[in-house]
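R.M. (postdoc): so does anyone remember the format we settled on? I'll just put the structure tokens first.
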């Protein structure tokens, strides 16, 4: 990885994770203590070591999720009922045909599983379009970061994660690039993404 490229912008088929406001507040409470209050007072060293950055520093801005195809997001629900059933059926370390049939029947009627199957099928069907789209989005995000003075992981943390006004400047810079790319707009339409700012 090039040192000037924040690690959060490497794109492969992956999940999107957004950090809650509560988690950000907890990180702000803990992190200043480790850095002698430099964040809270705005006196943070110019170059924080990557190893000293909190996990929050790897998060994407909340607005970035609007650019990600729905099929790339993870369903947050876990079917505890399903896993309890599977645990009960496999407690003897074997699965009979009847047990398999019961699991299959459950999954065929489970809305969470059906949503995930539909997302899998969408990703298979539009694999090339998703790849091209995400590459372009990643490129425009990188360009927008650089345009707004974000050249390292610590810059990213200070100027995008912690500074909402500057984060919005990056957002608007990225939005302009997207709006001037007809192919990206075409891909967004194919993938069902609404690219409103």
């Amino acid at each position: 990885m090039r040192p000037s490229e924040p690690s959060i912008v490497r794109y492969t088929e992956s999940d999107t994770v957004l950090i809650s406001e509560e988690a950000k507040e907890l990180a702000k409470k803990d992190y200043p203590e480790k850095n002698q209050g430099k964040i809270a007072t705005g006196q943070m060293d110019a170059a924080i070591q990557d190893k000293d950055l909190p996990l929050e520093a790897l998060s994407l801005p909340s607005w970035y999720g609007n650019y990600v195809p729905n099929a790339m997001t993870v369903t947050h629900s876990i079917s505890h009922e399903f896993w309890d059933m599977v645990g009960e059926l496999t407690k003897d370390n074997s699965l009979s045909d009847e047990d398999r049939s019961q699991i299959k029947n459950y999954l065929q009627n489970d809305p969470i599983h059906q949503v995930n199957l539909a997302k899998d099928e969408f990703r298979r069907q539009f694999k090339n379009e998703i790849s091209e789209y995400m590459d372009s989005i990643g490129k425009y995000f990188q360009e927008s970061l650089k345009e707004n003075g974000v050249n390292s992981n610590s810059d990213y943390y200070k100027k995008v994660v912690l500074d909402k006004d500057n984060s919005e400047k990056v957002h608007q810079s990225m939005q302009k690039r997207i709006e001037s790319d007809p192919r990206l707009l075409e891909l967004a339409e194919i993938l069902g993404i609404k690219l409103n700012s």
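R.M.: ...and that's the designed sequence above, right after the tokens. Also worth knowing: The CA atoms of residues 39 and 49 lie 14 Å apart. Residues 1-16, 30-46 have pLDDT under 50 and may be disordered.
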